[in-house]
Design a protein that fits this description.
204 residues; 10 helices; globular; single chain; mainly alpha; 0% strand
């Protein structure tokens, strides 16, 4: 369900926060696959619309049999805060090269999902920093995936222009700290593991 980096970050979530983070990261991953696998923008939009509809309605109205919806039930009705994540991913449906503005809009949508996690976990006082870290992480994630050289150049400039200072966040938000630190530094091999270990345990 999760790729190695989000799975690694999730490992540092304290027990009570883990289900909330897992649901968000799994939803983000699913939406990303919808966009990447869409051969036509309209097909992607239809599939994203299904998720938008689910997040906009009460969990009691959800269909049975979808494991991700089962995870989202644990949000206790607060899942509507994840709607911007759908909108953010939808921005990327289009022919390349996408503009920097569109990548920033998409990153802000994913960052809003991280902010919804923070709010649910009682860390709403840190939303500005959560938005910054979430946006940086999303931009670096886009940069690691694009194949169009023009988009790669755009994203490299955007990533380089961001404020990558660490943030002092509550332990409940440790997965975001890890994702941000890995996105802005060593993303492979032993260095990645040591960075995650330091951020996961110390938060900086």
């Amino acid at each position: 369900m999760l790729e190695p980096l989000p799975r690694l970050a999730l490992a540092y979530a304290p027990g009570p926060a883990r289900a909330t983070w897992l649901a968000f990261l799994a939803l983000d991953a699913r939406l990303g696959r919808v966009v990447r696998d869409a051969r036509e923008p309209m097909i992607g939009q239809i599939r994203l619309a299904w998720w938008r509809d689910r997040l906009a309605e009460p969990a009691n109205d959800w269909p049975k049999g979808e494991p991700l919806l089962q995870l989202l039930r644990q949000w206790g009705g607060d899942h509507g805060g994840l709607l911007p994540v759908v909108d953010g991913w939808e921005v990327l449906l289009g022919k390349p090269p996408l503009s920097g503005e569109r990548f920033l809009e998409a990153a802000s949508g994913r960052a809003a999902g991280a902010a919804a996690v923070a709010t649910r976990l009682g860390a709403g006082a840190h939303l500005d920093e959560v938005a910054r870290l979430g946006r940086n992480w999303a931009l670096a994630d886009f940069a690691a995936r694009v194949s169009d050289p023009r988009e790669a150049t755009t994203l490299a400039e955007l990533v380089g222009a961001q404020d990558w200072r660490p943030a002092n966040l509550p332990r409940a938000l440790r997965p975001l700290v890890v994702l941000h630190g890995l996105a802005g530094g060593n993303r492979s091999g032993t260095g990645q593991f040591l960075t995650a270990l330091r951020l996961g345990f110390l938060g900086r």
